[in-house]
Batch of 2 targets.
Target 1
Amino acid sequence: MDVEQQKKATTQVFETVADGYDHPSLRFFPFCADFLLQHLKPHSHSKILDVATGTGMFATAAAVSIAPTGRVTGIDLSEAMLAQLHHKASRMRLQNIDTHVMDAEQLEFRNDYFDAVVCSYGLFFMPDMDKALKSWLRVTKPGGTVMFTSFGEDAFQPLMSLFSEQIEKFGVKMAYKPVQLLHNVDTCRNMLENAGAQNVDVTTRQFGYHLRSAEDWWDALWNSGTRGYLDSLSPTDLAAFRRTHLQAVGELATDKGIWLDIQTHITRGHKPGS
């Protein structure tokens, strides 16, 4: 699969899951968005770019924080995701969000424009992460902030290991992905520094919670990026896998439920200048 095919395949998955992306089983997205906003501390006149905005968890939180004089721009390759963001912004009566269908590796904004560029759990979906980071820094004002999040090594474990082991028995191969590369704190720091940022720091936080049941884990799988693997199964195999997998996940339950680990690295740096 070449780069363009990879982008189209990833976009198609998120077109498919857009309607369910705000499902309560995936509530780590707003948890992380709130933390990013506190970490960023934007001023009231800020211009903020939210890369791979999805349904706009961070974009809407930021827009509320800097309204009415600040402005948020959200970009994504998925029109269905942006449609969800539009609906959400309308419901919240937010007038300071703009959206564009745009490739995060090739931003169509002028140099030195945004006070901050933020990407929550999106960088690892990009075929050329170094190119993306350089593009983000290009459109950031001197002294401005670039910040991205990635999952730690313990995130989704042991649930994801069970998923990988069991779905491969149905002939679905889960190849090594950049999400695993960004498990490493030093890699996150070095990538942003190599792109040209300075004063880079990495903070690790836990946004995890207990799921009520194995069914909640299935909701998380069905409404997120793992949907692509599930959709590759025939209806018969999907039903068999679901039954086998949820039985194994259910055995992990305690009196508190099933722990969903969301260990997250928040990498932040600044564009040189003032």
Target 2
Amino acid sequence: MCISELKFDDKGLIPAVICDYRTNEVLMVGYMNEEALRRTVESGRTTFWSRSRQEFWVKGEGSGHLQEVKWIRLDCDGDTLLIGVEQHVGACHLGYRSCFFRELHDGRWEVIAEKVFEPDEVY
């Protein structure tokens, strides 16, 4: 893996935009350090670095809503990853398929998606 081509920020992180590998629907954004990226590549499951908890986490490890990595792309500047996944159930901890379930309409955020699971039943 050509880690040297990646531009990590001053905290050693790179944003990873996670999308559906078939439709390119954006599901979530997380951050990876070098080790999280290595774990993602080796396991085929998205692994992130939690900036708040200061620890690694695998998406769906607790909920069962895993992300199977199908491909990984690097943007032209080398500072953002785009990762295509097969998402099992939902990516959003609030119960939606995507974390981007709100859209701005007339100055207000409106929910534009249906929940795919109830968080209280999963977490």
